[in-house]
Amino acid sequence: xSSTPASTSSRQSTRSSRTPHEDKLVLPLHEDIKDHFQDLExxxxxxxxxxxxxxxxxxxxxxxxxxxRDFVAALLQADxxxxxxxxxxxxxxxxxxEHWASTLAALSDFPDLDYRFVAGAHPHEAKNYTxxxxxxxxxxxxxxxxxxxxxxxxxxxxxNSPRDVQQDVLRRQLxxxxxxxxxxxxxxxxxxxxDDIVRILKEELPREQRVxxxxxxxxxxxxxxxxxxxxxxxxxxxxxxxxSTNVNTPQVIRDLGATCSPSNPAGxxxxxxxxxxxxxxxxxxxxxxxxxxxxxxxxAHGGVLPWTAEFxxxxxxxxxxxxxxxxxxxxxxxxxxxxxxxCYGV
Length: 346
Hints:
By secondary structure, this protein is of the alpha/beta class. About 35% of the residues lie in helices and about 15% in strands. The chain has an eight-stranded parallel beta sheet with strand order 1-2-3-4-5-6-7-8.
C-alpha cells in the first residue's frame, strides 16, 4: 500500500519524537566515575567509526557535524563527557578499504585520542575474498597504527557466506596475518560456531597469540575452552551484555569473576568495546541523559563504555556479602584498559 503524505508525515513525526536532540549524544560523565575520571582512560577496543558517522547522518540529516573529524571531536573528546582516550577502529568489508586512509588522516592527530585500527574480512564477506583484497589488507596491516588483523571468523547465525568458504577464508587470513611477520593481534568474530572456531583457532594459532574474541555471546563452555588454551586471549564485552535475552555473556563474566577479585584483578580477561554504532547498552537511564521516556539513544559510541562497565560490575558483585571486597565501575574500566594494553599494545 502506498503512503499518503499525511501518513508519511505521521511516521516522520513518530521517528522524530523517539530521537533525542543531537546535543544529547554527548554523554555526561557517568555517576560511578565522576570522582575517578582524572586517572581513568576509556578504551574502545572495537568500533566502526565510519559506520557510526553514517548512522548519525541518517538520524540527523541536518546535523551540525559535517565531517567525521568534527563528529568525533564533539562526541568523543568533549570536556565534561566520557572522553575516549583510545579507539580501535575496524575495517572488515571490501568497501571499507576505500576510506581507511582518509579516516586515518582525519583522526590520527587528536592530542588526546590515540586512533588505532584493525583490518580484515568479516565472515559475511568471505565469499568475496580475493587476492587483491588480501593485498589491500596487508598494506593496511603494515601501517604503524594498525594493531591487528580482523574482524575475521565464523558466523553461522546468518550464513551470508557458505560455511566451508568461511572456514577456508578464516584459515587463509590467519596464515597471512602470521606470515606477515608483524606480530599483531587477531580480532575474532564468532557466532553459533563454537566447535569449528575452537578447532580452527587451536590448529592455526600459536598458544601465545594475542586474540580478541569480539562481542562474545556464545556459550560459556566455548569461552572457557579458548581462555584455557590461549593465555593471551580476551573476551570482548559490548552493550549487548545488558540485554535480557543475552544469558551467555553474563555467565562468562561470572566464570571469570570466580578466578579473580578487585584486589587481584588480572583474571578478569575482558576487553570493553562498543561495536559502534550497534547495540547501545540497555541500562542507560533516559532521565539521567535528559531524554523523554519514549526516546531511545540512537546508536552506540565510545561514550557509552561506562554503562557497560557498570553492568559488568553488577554481575561480578552478585552474591557478595557485605564484608566482601566489591568491584567498582572504575575498577572494571581500569582492568579492561590494562587488558587493551596487553592485547593490542595501546
